[in-house]
Amino acid sequence: MTVLSRGPRENGHRPAVDVLFRSAAREHRSKVIGVVLSGRRDDGAAGLYFIKARGGVAIVQDPHEALAPNMPRSALEMVDIDFCLPVRQIADVLVQLVNGKAANITEPRNEGTNMDGEQAPVHPTSEPAGDQIPVGCPDCNGPLYEVKHGELALFECFVGHRFSPENLSEQHAEALERALWTAIRKLKERMVLHERFVDRKRSKSEEELLKRLEESVTTAKKDLELLREILDRI
Fold it and tell me: 162, 181, 193, 234: most buried, per Cβ within 10 A?
């Protein structure tokens, strides 16, 4: 029986392919066949790693024919893939595997990796089994931990959000972009506020204040240009 739950997002997604692969591998072990097709980032690679660790079969689309080659290419770099094929040939191989007509390739390729203790609790009650890193979770801003499974490294926060290295980098960049846009908005608000103060009627005692406000507007305009340059680089 398959059950969907509203758990923490993985690589920013829910449902997520790595959660699906990992859950299937944990329950059905060598009976699982994982297929990764065209797609961005490196989603699916970690899930295939868990499938292979439990004796399952890993298949990826040939990156040379994929519209977005990142996902199959990342899987090839991280996992001992059994089949790398054009998408039209994958269906035939799946039929052969299901019918038991393919070669015997279901022995675990990651013998040195113990996955039996790997769990996926819906409501984690303790810290992830890894080293905390000085980076906040892009989803909840909680503490983030590097959790290693053999050669595979994942990043997990206290409540269960998970990220591959590539996804963590991209989502951190998106969080940085949001923070910079917030800073831009605040600077523009400050500039408008001080411009209004400059334009209103004032007494002679406010001449010194006027000078500081004009300088503030000039500085804010320069800071806005700098923030936009930073946004263009990330």
Answer: 162
Paired tokens of 45: 């690679």
Residue 228's Cβ-count burial label (10 Å; 0-12, 13-18, 19+) is exposed
Single-letter code of the amino acid located at 148 = K
pLDDT, tens digit (0-9, with 9 covering 90-100), for 103-152: 544 444 444 444 554 544 444 556 788 899 999 999 889 999 999 887 78
Radius of gyration of the chain (CA): 25
Mean pLDDT for 19-38 is 93
Q: Does the predicted TM-score (pTM) go above 0.90?
A: no
Q: Are the CB atoms for 180 and 230 separated by under 8 Å?
A: yes
CB 50 within 8 A of CB 20: no
Say which residues have a Cβ less than 8 Å from residue 72's Cβ, sequence separation at least 6.
36, 37, 38, 39, 60, 61, 62, 63, 66, 84
pLDDT of residue 9: 87
